[in-house]
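During the reporting period the student researcher (J.K.) took over the structure-prediction task from the postdoctoral fellow and processed the backlog of single-chain submissions. One of the processed entries is reproduced below for the supervisory committee.
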Amino acid sequence: MQAAVEDVLMPTTCTIMRAGTATPNQKGGFTGSFTAYASGVPCRVGPISSLGDRTPAESMFEERIGSQQRYMVYMPAGQSVQLNDRIVVADGRTFEVVSVPVESFQMWQPVVCVQVT
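J.K. obtained the following structure tokens:
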């Protein structure tokens, strides 16, 4: 049943990229890199269109999100996703995770993101 739900509700796939070790650069800052953590993950991506769509968990991150367009990415329940992970969707868009709401009973894993490319 879970596979049938994923086929219908999650029509594309993505790769979850996790931050690696930050390396000092010549300007006194750090250069970070991301490595693939999980690939071929079924997902659905859609914009969060209005303030009425916010969950309490999203509201906590409103200052960090600011005025950027927010997106909700849905993945299979139990998929490991962390703050600051990057999600690269099959169509080439890249999103940064800004919130991972936790619900008591999940049929899918919702993730709040902002688009970075």
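The committee noted the following: Residues 7 and 42 are 8 Å apart (CA to CA).
J.K. will present the remaining backlog at the next meeting.
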